[in-house]
Write a structure and sequence with these properties.
single chain, mainly alpha, globular
């Protein structure tokens, strides 16, 4: 249980930068939906889907690779591992920036931004910097410095938010519009570099080509996994303009879908904060002897599901308030929120299940699972989006992560001795869904009264968890 407490503590601290930081970014959504048209926000949604995919490519699985190799029993010089990865990512990020500027014209036309090529180069420089700085942040996690990690992240986020407020309220020019979002992101990423100076100096920079080859051999399946996983998350936003090309409001519908997905972002924020703490936790725990570590893995999964469903119920029960975070013209898409949130929960469970192939160096399995999910994503989007629009995108994500989660679980039963409390987790999951269904029947004239009438259901769920887990007697 001590390991779980440590994991919970680190998750909470990382949450300062992930959950709280993303929450503050979330508060920008009302500004975006107020200042931008649905079509303009559709452009933002579309381009950031490409950015997310590019970031995965530019880090090429080296974050997990770093944790694996720096925690190996035969690792005699952790700083050699660190500096080798830094040099590798610095080189590839610089090469990426050069290629984007070289082919800026064709890229801008291909991404339907021929009139605004500055959007493309600003995003390219931003994502290259973010890819490089991912490793210093991994180093902070390895050294168990979550507070410093959170401070750096929060400073960068605060700067980004501050710039957005300045641009949209003090300097706003409708001709630039969505360009302000890209500009603020770029400036914040550039300023982050000197903040990380302590993590980039004070050691001997050395490059070990043989070590890098071993790390790439370990990480390339994770790259494929990352690409497939990211495409499962963002491919709908990339494909949507092509699949609905004949419809006059195509980009506007994408903007509505993208804005409503932001309402569901709470689950993703929790999952990301958990992931930051979980990876170093499982690799460090794996070095210990005895069966306690297996129980720690099992408990971590159980409590992830519990907290995830509490978040789900809170968001759905208080939707009459949360719906005000986006402009009224975007609210027609709010029905995707519960679907997207459960999909994100499935992905978090899949991430928990990934420990068996990461710890046994069989990362190729993660690739197969993600590719299976990608097939589901592509098929459902291509078949149903032209008819059902963004609702098909939400259900495709739900089915994709559900398939990945189930596939990893059943294969893991044969490959790893760990057993999870499936029946209890299933009871918590379906119990929460039942309470959500019950709460959905309560719709009063006043939003405040509606939320007040649903609150006892949330408290009943929390109290039942505390009782069953013997946390509260």
């Amino acid at each position: 249980m001590a390991g779980i407490k440590s994991l919970a503590k680190d998750t909470a601290i990382y949450g300062l930068s992930s959950i709280i930081g993303r929450f503050l970014n979330w508060l920008l959504v009302p500004i975006y939906t107020m200042k931008l048209t649905e079509a303009q926000y559709g452009v933002v949604t579309n381009l950031y889907a490409y950015v997310a995919l590019t970031l995965i490519v530019l880090t090429y699985g080296m974050e997990t690779g770093f944790f694996r190799f720096v925690n190996r029993e035969d690792c005699k010089d952790p700083m050699r591992v660190y500096s080798t990865v830094l040099i590798s990512l610095a080189s590839t990020s610089a090469l990426f920036i050069g290629l984007v500027f070289l082919f800026l014209g064709p890229l801008s036309r291909a991404l339907d931004c021929a009139a605004h090529p500055q959007y493309i180069w600003m995003l390219a420089v931003t994502v290259a910097i973010d890819a490089f700085t991912a490793i210093p942040f991994c180093y902070l996690r390895y050294k168990k410095r979550p507070v410093r990690f959170a401070v750096y992240k929060c400073l960068s986020i605060a700067l980004n938010i501050g710039l957005n407020l300045i641009f949209f309220f003090l300097m706003y020019n409708p001709a630039i519009a969505e360009g302000y979002i890209f500009m603020a992101n770029l400036i914040a990423s550039v300023i982050l570099l000197p903040l990380l100076w302590r993590e980039l100096t004070g050691f001997k920079w050395q490059f070990d080509g043989q070590l890098l080859r071993k790390m790439l051999n370990y990480s390339w399946p994770l790259l494929i996994l990352g690409i497939a996983g990211n495409m499962n998350q963002n491919l709908d936003k990339i494909l949507f303009p092509f699949l609905t090309a004949g419809q006059p409001d195509s980009m506007a519908q994408l903007g509505i879908y993208g804005a409503c997905c932001k309402v569901a972002l709470v689950m993703m924020m929790f999952t990301q904060a958990y992931r930051f703490a979980y990876e170093p936790f499982i690799f460090a725990k794996n070095r210990e002897q005895g069966g306690d570590k297996l129980q720690a893995y099992s408990d971590a999964m159980k409590f992830f599901v519990i907290f995830g469903m509490v978040i789900f119920l809170a968001v759905m029960f208080y939707m009459p308030l949360l719906r005000n975070f986006i402009s009224e013209s975007f609210r027609s898409g709010l029905r995707v929120v519960p679907i997207v949130m459960i999909a994100d929960l499935f992905f978090g469970v899949f991430f928990n299940l990934s420990l068996w192939y990461k710890l046994t160096d069989k990362t190729i399995w993660g690739t197969w699972f993600s590719l299976a999910g990608l097939v589901v994503t592509v098929a459902l989007n291509v078949i149903f989006v032209p008819t059902y629009g963004y609702m098909a995108c939400a259900w495709a994500a739900f089915c994709c992560y559900g398939v990945m989660m189930l596939a990893s679980y059943f294969v893991g039963l044969r490959k790893h001795p760990l057993r999870y409390p499936v029946k209890r987790m299933g009871a918590y999951f379906f119990g929460a869904l039942a309470l959500w269904g019950l709460g959905s029947m309560v719709e009063l004239d006043s939003a405040a009264l509606t939320m007040a009438s649903r609150t006892p259901l949330l408290l009943i769920y929390i109290m039942a968890i505390l009782k069953f887990e013997k946390i509260w007697r």
